[in-house]
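Q: Focus on the shape:
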Amino acid sequence: MDPNRLSKLKELEKKFLDPRDVLNTDCLLDSIQALIGDCDHPAIRRMKNVELFLNRYDGVSSKITNLRIKPDDFTLIKVIGRGAFGQVQLVRNKNTDKVYAMKLLSKYEMIKRSDSAFFWEERDIMAHSNSEWIVQLHFAFQDSKYLYMVMDYMPGGDLVNLMSNYDVPEKWARFYCAEVVLALEAIHRMGFVHRDVKPDNMLLDASGHLKLADFGTCMKVDSDGLIRSDVAVGTPDYISPEVLKSQSGEGVYGKECDYWSVGVFLYEMLVGDTPFYAESLVGTYGKIMDHKNSLRFPDDVDDISDKAKDLIKKFLSDRTKRLGRNGAEEVKRHPFFENDQWTFNTIRECVPPVVPDLNGDDDTSNFDDIEIDDSPDENFPQPKAFVGNHLPFIGFTYSKDYQLLSRVANSSNQPRDITDKGSSSENNNNKLGAEQALKLRQRLEELESKYQAVVRELDSTTRMQELMSNEHRELEKQAALLRHELKEAQRKHENELENKKKLESSLFETRKRLEDEQNRRTREQTSNQQVTDRISTLEKQVGELNEKLKAESDSHNKTRRQFADANLNLVNKEQAIEDLMERFSCLQKTRDQLEVEISSLNSIVDNERSGRSQEAKRSLELEKQKVLLQNEVERLSDKEKHAVEESRRLAEEVVRLEKKGASLDYELRSMTQKYHAEVDSHTQTKRAKAGLREEENTEEVKGLQNNLIEEKSARQNAECLAEEKERQLSMMAVDLRQLQQQISKMESELKQEIEKNKSLSNLLENEGAKKAVLHLEMANMSSEVSLLKSRERQLSRDVESARETIKNLEESVIRYKQMKSSTDSQMRELQDQLETEQHFSVLYAGEGETKRPEEASSVAEMSSLSLTETSKPGLLHHKGHELLPISFHMPTTCEVCPKPMWHMFKPPPALECRRCRIKVHRDHLEKQEEGIAPCKVNYDSNAAKEILIMTPSTEEQQLWVNRLSKRLKAAGFRPNSHNPDGTRVSPRESTRSAFRPSSSHIQKSSTLPGNNGALRNSK
C-alpha cells in the first residue's frame, strides 16, 4: 500500500478513536440520526433528494438506535431532583444491575434558552475530568426530545440536607471546605469556571466524601484566564460582585468568583445563614456590592475561630485581593486548614464526619420526595422547511466503557505483523525451500497460540484486578463503617455514663421518697387506728339507726297514699323541669348571641370612638387652618389697603409732577421767548449803535452799554435757569417712568392678591362645608353611639335577668334533685311490693289520652300556648317548614344562595323554620324558587303510645285488664267506644283531649309513659 495513503488512513482512524475529537465514531453516528430526525417531516420529504436520502438511511438509523444505548436500557426507580431544563432520575441498568443518576435535559428548552444552557461544558467536565472530587459521567446519549447523562449516584444527598439535620461544628466545616477546594482545583485545571458553587451542588457519596456536581453553568476561560460574559448566572445569595457587574457589560472575572461562593458556603455552615441575606433580591444584591460594610459576624455565635473569620473575610473581598485568585495552593496554605488528622494529600483516606447509613445501593432516604411530572412536555413544532433542531447536539453521545474499536485496532495490528512475517516467510520460502516454509508455518501457529494465551491471561488478570479493586473498596467502606460504629459506641458509652449518673441521682431521690413514704405510712397507721375506733362508734350508731328505721317503716305505710299524690306531682314537676330546661337552653343561646352582639357592638363603639377622636383631631386641625387662613385674609386685606393708598398717593404725585412739568415747560418757553427778544433787541442796538454819529452824546452810549451788560448777564442767568429746569424736567420724567412701573407692578400684585384672596375664601368656604359635614357626621355617630350604648345597657340588663333566671332554675333543679333522691328510695320500697314483675315496652306511637276534669285548666293553658305558637302572625308553610319572619344583625349565611342575609342596621328580610332552623332570604319564597329543601323535622301531632303488658296466662291478662280499667276510670280517662253524644267512635280516632305534647317531649326510650308510676300504684 502507498505509505502516504497508509499514514492518512492511520491519522483518520486516530480521529475516529479519539473520544475528544469531533470526528469520533459517536459523532458520525449522531450526524446520521440528526439528519434523519430533521428531514423526516412531511413538508421536507416532498423534496426528491431528501426522499432518496431517507429511503437509503432510514432503516440504518433505526438499526443504529437499537444497537446504541437508549433510555429503555434503564429502569426508573425514583425522581430525585427537578430543575429548569429537566429532571434527575435514579435508574438501574437492566443488563448490569448497577444504579446510576440519570439527568434529562429538554432539547426544546436548550434551544429556546441557549444563552444560559452550557450542556457541552457539563458533559466534557464529567466525561474527561478523571478526578475523584467530581461526579463522573458513564454514558451520554439522546433521543428526539431529551439529552441523557448517566452519572454516579451519590446516595448521601447534598450538603443542604446535612446542614438541616446537624449543627455543623468548625471541624466538619474545615473538612468539607477542603474537599470543595480540591474539586474546584480540578475544574480550574481543565480551564473551566463553575460559577454556581453552593451546598445544593455538593453531593456526598456512599462513604461520606464530597463531590461537586451540576456543571450546567460552567464556562471555559479565554487565553488570558478571564471570562467575558454579559449574562449573570448563579444563585443570588452566592453570586460574586464581579459577576453582578458583568451583567451590564462592564466587567470581566476569572476563577476567583468560585472562591467567593466558597466563602459564603463556609459562613453558612458556621453561622446557619448566608452573610448577605435580605428580604428582597435587590437588598441581597445591594449588600453584595457593599460587602465591605455589610459583612458582619453575629454576636450570638461564639464558636467561630479567628482563623475561620480570617478565611471568610479573605474569600469575601475584592477580586483583586481575594484569596484563590492565584490558584488553590494559596488557599491550601491558609492556617484554617491546619489539623492533626488529615492533609490535602491524605484527606481521601480519612473517615468523613458523617457516613450515610444506607439500606442498599438504591437508598433515597437523603433526598426529598418529588412527584413525577405528568404534564405534557414541550416539543419542537412541526417545521415547514428544514430547521435543523437536532444539529446542535451532534457529538453529544459518550460511552465511558466504549473500547471496542481500540481493541480491534490492537488486534488488527497483530495479524498485520503476523501477515508481514508470513509474507516475508513466503519470500524466504522461494529461497530456502519447503522445509523452511513448514517451519515458518509451525512458528506462526505457535505465535498465534501464544498470542491467544496471552490475551486470555490478560483478560483474567484484568478481571482479577477489577475484583481486587472491588474488594479493596468494600474493605475501605467496611473500615469507614467500623470507624463510624466505634465513634457511635464511644458516644453511646458516654451516654450510658450520663444515664448511670442520672439513675444514681434518681435512686437517691427514690430512697428519700421511700423514707418519706414509710414515715407517712406510720402516720397513716396511727390515723387508721383512729378510723377503726370511729368505725366501731359508727356501727353502734348504725344499730340505733336500724331501730329507728323499723319505727320509720311503720310510719312509712301511712305515707304511701301521700306518695301516690307526690308521684303525680313528680311527673308534673318533671314536665315543668323539662320546660324549664328548654327555656334554660334557649336563654343560654340568647345569652351567647347577646354576648357576641355585645362584643361586636363594643368593637363598633371602639371604632366609633377612635373615629370620633380622629374626627376631633381633624376638626382641631381644620380650626387651626381656619384661624391661619383668617389671619392670612386679614393680612392680605391690610396689604391690599396699603397698596390702594400707595397707588392713590402715587397717582396724586404723578398729577403734581405733571402740573409741575407743565409749569416748568411754560417757564422754559417764556424764558426762550424772552431770550429771543433780548437777542433781537441786541442786534437792533448794534445796528443803532453803528448808525449813531460820533458826535452823539457819549453819556447815552455808556448808558446803552451798561444796559447791554445787564441784558447779557440776565440772558446768561436765564440760560442757566433753563438748563437747570431741563435737567430737573428730565429727572422728573425718569421718576415718572419709575413711578408708572411701580404702579403697574403694584396693580399686578393687587390683582394676584385679589385672586389669592378669592381662592382662600373658596378654600375657607370648602373647609367650612367639610367641617359642617363632619359635625353632622359626628352628630349622627354620637346619636348612633348613644343608641348603641342604650342597646348595650338593655342587653346587659337582659343578660343579668337571664343569669338570674338561670340561677333560679339551677336552684330549682337542685331542689328537684334532692326531692327526687328522697322519693327514689321510697319508690324502690314500693316496687318490692308490686304483685308482678312484667316487662313493659313502648313500641309505637298510638292512641291518645284524655286528662281529668281537674287538669282541664292546665291543659287549656298548654293548648292555648301551643295554639299561639302555631298561629303566630306571618307564619308561612312551605315544603313542611313553618317559616317565621326574622332579621339578622349578626353574620348569618343563607342556605340557598351565597348573598349575605345580615346587616348591622338594615338587615334584609329573612325567614327561619322553627322546626329545622333553616335560614333563607324571603325573596326565595316569594319568587317560588326550588332551592329550598324540604323540612327534615317531621312529626305527627296525633301521636300517642301503646302499652304492651306480657302475662303468663289468660286469667292474669283479664286481671290486668280489670285493674287498668279501674285505674283509668279513677284517673279520669274515658273509653274510646262512644262519644259524649252517644255515637260510636272509630278505634283509630283519638280519645284524648286536644292537647298535644311537643315533639321534644315525646319519650323515645322503651319505658312507660308519664303516668306509669300511677299504674304501678294501682297494682
User: Anything to note?
Assistant: Residues 698-832 form the longest helix (135 residues).
